Amino acid sequence: MSEPSLDHYARYQALKLRRHPQGILEIVMGARGGVPGKLSTADEGLHRELADIWRDVDTDPDTRVVVIRGEGKGFSGGGDLELVQQMADDFEVRARVWREARDLVYNVINCNKPIVSAMHGAAVGAGLVAGLLADVSIAARDARIIDGHTRLGVAAGDHAAIVWPLLCGMAKAKYYLLLCEAVSGEEAERIGLVSLCVDEAELIGKAFEVAGKLASGSQTAIRWTKYALNNWLRLAGPSFDASLALEFMGFAGPDVREGIQSLRERRPPAFKPDAPF
């Protein structure tokens, strides 16, 4: 019997897709521009595809489990600065990306197939949304998980408010989200932010091992258990919606412009000392 085709995903360009035995679909966020040693950054195309892919996974009869990973020196490198600049300058772009950011979170939560993430190197931005909302999240011991929002000058929106307090508790969530501190894979496992951590050499193998176990189990039981557990995340929907609205309101303010400029100049930001709220 021939392997199922990828015609279901023909429109995807920024994401690389591969089918494996047992109905495992591998989603790879490619290195930026295909250049080895570069991080995958969420430009316009990748951000849109990361939001949309989970609806197609949900309706794909040939997929039982997804493994999502990054290619190159890390899992994901955060938002592309050109896209961030457009969001700051253009209301239409800001509104479109807001909707994609909302859809990314809810589409991962509502996807009926279990998702396994394999995070190495830096894990930031839109890719991190899928990485931490995955049903089983696996990190390399020396991975660096960073929610980069406050460093950029906007509120920690994306997935942070919906899942960090549930995974690692409010005290740890506030510490890492407010200070924009990096969390190693080993520390992330210790505080409950990820499911497992392993040596980087074992990361991909472990992800596929877990995916194989999920693929060989009762699909009805596994999918319904995921649905029931994710009601905890759905309950946090209003908090998430508020955080995302505040994040995108920040893209219209002055701090994000300083954040963008400081990142381009590779220097600490000099934000104004007060705020209207």
TrEMBL record:
GO terms for molecular function: catalytic activity. The lineage of its organism: Bacteria, Pseudomonadati, Pseudomonadota, Betaproteobacteria, Burkholderiales. Pfam families: ECH_1. InterPro entries: ClpP/crotonase-like_dom_sf (IPR029045), Enoyl-CoA_hyd/isom_CS (IPR018376), Enoyl-CoA_hydra/iso (IPR001753), Enoyl-CoA_hydra_C (IPR014748). PROSITE patterns: ENOYL_COA_HYDRATASE (PS00166). Belongs to the enoyl-CoA hydratase/isomerase family. It comes from Bordetella petrii (strain ATCC BAA-461 / DSM 12804 / CCUG 43448 / CIP 107267 / Se-1111R). NCBIfam families: PRK07327.1 (NF005595). This is Enoyl-CoA hydratase.
